[in-house]
Model the fold of this input.
Amino acid sequence: MRKPVFKRVVLKISGEALQGRLGYGIDYNVTDSIARQIKEVRALGVEVAVVIGGGNIFRGVTGSAKGIDRASADYMGMLATVINGLALQDALEKNGVFTRVQTAIQMQQLAEPYIRRRAIRHMEKGRCVIFVGGTGNPYFTTDTTAALRAIEIGAEVILKATKVDGIYSSDPVKNRRARRFDTLRYIDVLKKGLKVMDATAISLCMDNNLPIIVFDLFKEGNIKRVITGEKIGTTVKG
Done:
């Protein structure tokens, strides 16, 4: 059995990924698959934190474009991430993985407040920590949340789980000639305007030398493959 190459990771999952083929909401087959994959890597002794988006329920930018005040729309999007986090927690615990949900927006009946040292201690005790509520501030995406939390808790890498198998020169669905990159530098992602994570998140990772691996979430076992060092997806680093 291959040994893990990372000790502590942040797994970034978009809200859209959770909807699967439904087009909206939460596909519980998807949350169960993610939970089983996380269980696999937890069995290897890897400490896992998850940052989850809310775009399958409500996206702040979209709401703002339709006339909702931008700050209010972003707060609505943050609440959507809480729903997703609780759904993933349920799937994880049904698969025997102990979890804690920590939120940047306090809601005591549902989740713990985000406290950095407590999050680290949970992971040291073998629990998977799910970060919801974004950063707690409007105008920031959950990509930025993933970068910020990863730096705060001392994660070694961000695993960006997506619907495609890496970063392409253009949308591979629309352009069959789009080229997939094996590796990229942070500055190249910014210069090329590649839509893998927002510019704030990429800049945070670049300033703190935190690598990002972008890979296909929907191929069963890919999370374990990435963590054990298999060369899949696209790696963004210095």
Q: What stands out?
A: The chain is about 40% helix and 20% strand. The chain has a mean pLDDT of 94. Residues 70-94 form the longest helix (25 residues). Residues 39 and 97 are 6 Å apart (CA to CA).
